[in-house]
Amino acid sequence: MISHILYPILLCLVVALYFCVKFVAHILTTRHALRHVPGPRPSSLIWGEEWLLYHSTPGAHYVRWHRQFGKILRFTGAFGHQVLSITDPSAIKYILGEAIFDFPKPKGVRAWFKATLGEGILWVEGREAHERQRRALAPALSQTSVRSLVPIFYDTSAKLASQWMKIIDDGHSDEAEIEVTKWAGRFALDTVGRAAFSYDFDCLSGRPHALADSMDGLTNNENKISSFYMRALFWIFPSILSIGDKGEMIRKSKMELGNIASKMWRDAKVAGDANGKNLMSMILRAEAKFSTHKMDENELVAQMRTTISAAFEPVSAIVAWTLFELALNVRLQNELREEVSTAGLGDPSYDDLTSNLPLLDAIIREVLRLHPPILENHHEAAETISVPLSEPIPGTSDTYLVIPKGTILEIPVNVVQTDPDVWGSDAEIFRPERWLERKKRGIRSDREILAFSEGPRSCIGKTFALCEVKALIITLLRQFSFACPYEIEPFQSFVIRPRIKGQGPSSLPLIVRKV
């Protein structure tokens, strides 16, 4: 009887001991291999630098560390695991370009995407599997397809503007304080629903909305201590994503997205609209063309979840930060209003949005430069690999860095995009005119903006996102002016969001006035 109880316990202990020894051996081996790479001393024996990073202004320590230690540094994560932070241009070009499939997403990041979205394009790894999924999605997000979707962008923008006008009118005034982040997220959801799937989520009605609330709640509560533990530990213990209230929230969000995606798919099959240019129509055509190899419904729903989520988080953040920066600069706001007002009586075309509104383009680029939605681009070395450097690590003459298998590395986008050697002494100042000056002088670096990444795994929705944001800003500026009466700070959820300084969740109340 005792043996039946002891054997399973002993087996569990042996397995646990094996993984502990393996984990410690990996840490010691990695630390030895990277001993010549400089970096800060761990501020905590248990948490390394995770506590410091979590409770500081997003990206601030990356800036300080890279100024002190150079373009390649290492720091310590939870339980001693080593992280490389890389801003060297040659290394970034190699990692994101020709060697991207040797540097997959870390296991924890993949576990997050699988838990929240399923096995879609953000989760998949390997050249063949990724290219197959990218080929299925890319045509619906191409420039040709986006061109045909521009009227939808303006229509959704007009719905948001109408709701804001109603809020102002109901207050019997010419202005009202409006919480922008809430509306930016709902705008993003309604736009992707209609443009990608011919489906109206109806998030802009102003009423409570289960999908919007679920997605917002998943990442908009990062001030909780449970979020710190999950963020610090999921790099080495991905299973933590299924534990506790946060794990339940992840499952709820995935289920909500899955239910809506399944309904959209059933409705689309009944409607049979395979002649359009949106994502759903292209999926229907693929189903008809490859009738002997039906698309797996789990994969299809995962792609739909991924598209919705990818369109929600970054776009809502870009909209919020753009309106924030305009609210701080009345002169710039007026100049942009004049540009978009003189663009014609109607709505600017796709060509106008992409080429003929230089100040608007410069402002959006500057927002992406100083407020990148994704702060860090994370990867993991699939095998021990040698990476080229543009300059040797201080104290060595090596122009290559050997990265051990399993090492997590991150590219701090904010450091790259505020490098004074590239952007000048005012690199940390919001000054859109720099883009007009650079264009006039013919200056263009190989890597101007990393907000959408680059290379084979760059964001395929970049054109879609930029056009919808520009359409919204044009629509709003023609009807409203903006002012910000609060001190706003950035904080890191899944993306970098704005909030009133010292508060918990995202918040950007602006004074919105009729013009």
Automatic annotation (TrEMBL):
GO terms for cellular component: membrane. One of its GO terms (molecular function) is monooxygenase activity. Keywords: Heme, Iron, Membrane, Metal-binding, Monooxygenase, Oxidoreductase, Transmembrane, Transmembrane helix. InterPro entries: Cyt_P450 (IPR001128), Cyt_P450_CS (IPR017972), Cyt_P450_E_grp-IV (IPR002403), Cyt_P450_sf (IPR036396), Cytochrome_P450_monoxygenase (IPR050121). Heme binds at residue 459. Belongs to the cytochrome P450 family. This is Cytochrome P450. It comes from Lentinula guzmanii.
